[in-house]
Amino acid sequence: MGASDTLDDYFGVDERDSDVGTELVAGVTTFLAMSYIILVNPFILADAIQIQGYEYIEVVQMVAIGTIIASAVAIFVMAFYANRPFGLAPGMGLNVFFAYTVVLGMGIPWETALAAVFVEGIIFIVITAVGAREYVIRLFPEPVKFSVGAGIGIFLLFIGLLEMSVVVPDPDTAVTLGDLATSPAALLGLFGLFLTFVLWARGITGAIIIGIVATTVVGWLTYLTGIAGASVLPTALVSEGGELSFAVVTSPQYDISPLLFAFVDGLQGVDPLTFVLVVFTFFFVDFFDTAGTLIGVAQFGEFLDEDGNLPDIDRPLMADAVGTTVGAMVGTSTVTTYVESSTGVEEGGRTGLTALVVGLLFLASLVLIPLVAMIPAYASFIALVVVGIIMLEGVLDVEWDDPAWAVSAGLTITIMPLTYSIANGLAAGIIAYPIIKAATGEFDDVRHGQWLMALVLVGYFYVYTSGMLG
């Protein structure tokens, strides 16, 4: 029996109407779409993590190693235990909350913030093991389950266009069209975007990978030939003076002992109330971000059953619980399932073999970080725009003529990008559903657990927006 047959048998690739080659391509696609976290997460957390005797860039490199380790562990659990094609890594938004709200804003030591992440991870492991997480997710109203895919699609689309500078912040209108004619990076991003759309429309396997790589090559060529300046290169490699510097990736700090189990020191002398609030916020956002991503990507991959549930959802949920716990041990913020997993699903990934490839590539990036760093943001974020548009097909599953469905689904879809949070979109839809159901005289259709969940989420929004977290 060959290696291909062995992998096919172990992961049940053929049973899910896939093949080993497709799974490998899907894994590479997902990795390319989410690999930016290897560079982004360290620079965010290093702003808050200061270690005596180490320079800033050394801390960045240490956190990069921790990011890779935590991601790989979580992904391997997803591959071998859950057998699902989802990638995991420290979550964007959660790392910002960790660094700028908890540590820099509230003045909490970074070791204590890691302790909060560790406690959250342990809680997740326990409630996942007993099936409580799956029970809560099954309480999600149907319109939320069936609209979350489209909501994530718009969210991905928005993030991608922002990172490509096609859409830019504006003080008067919040966002506006970027200066495309004078921005080489934005023009290259648009070139790569439409190249990828053409390849995808033609049914070319690996269209997203080809688009990202082609755009990267063209970007470097425009710089090397003098057509464009350093603005088309990855910002991590360019100094303020416009000179290239590969120090951040050619001389990595592999000794992460200052970060290992630093959370243990953070458990000492903490203020109980503040600590509980921090743990609760990490817990809430990770819970609903992961749930929303799993349901949304699962809907896109046609993994959901007729009731909109993901069978054996406790298994993929355990992956992010273990990843979060390990992440705290090695010095990084909460690990969550990535919406970029949808890029691999779009390429045909259907089993844990896709996740295994993602995890192995994360480990390989320990020595191949320079190659990852060569990809500019405008190239890597092409995948988000393409998949975001494709995922909009989820709106077809919503019963728009039903008021409760329309309001709940509409809020779920729109609040995600408008507040830059999957969790907020889910919460808005969950809160709206029982209220509108009751208003239309269908009170008996609402389960008691749905009322309770809506009430808890109202409490969360009050805490989150009242300034109690600093």
TrEMBL record:
Regions crossing the membrane: 20-39, 59-81, 88-108, 114-132, 144-168, 180-201, 208-232, 275-297, 317-339, 351-371, 377-396, 408-436, 448-465
Keywords: Cell membrane, Membrane, Transmembrane, Transmembrane helix, Transport
Superkingdom per UniProt: Archaea
InterPro entries (UniProt xref): Azg-like, Azg-like_bact_archaea, NCS2
GO CC annotations, alphabetized: plasma membrane
Pfam family, one: Xan_ur_permease
Membrane topology category: Multi-pass membrane protein
A single MF term (Gene Ontology): purine nucleobase transmembrane transporter activity
Localization per record: Cell membrane
Family: Belongs to the nucleobase:cation symporter-2 (NCS2) (TC 2.A.40) family. Azg-like subfamily.
Stated name of the protein: Xanthine/uracil/vitamin C permease
Provenance organism: Haloterrigena turkmenica (strain ATCC 51198 / DSM 5511 / JCM 9101 / NCIMB 13204 / VKM B-1734 / 4k)
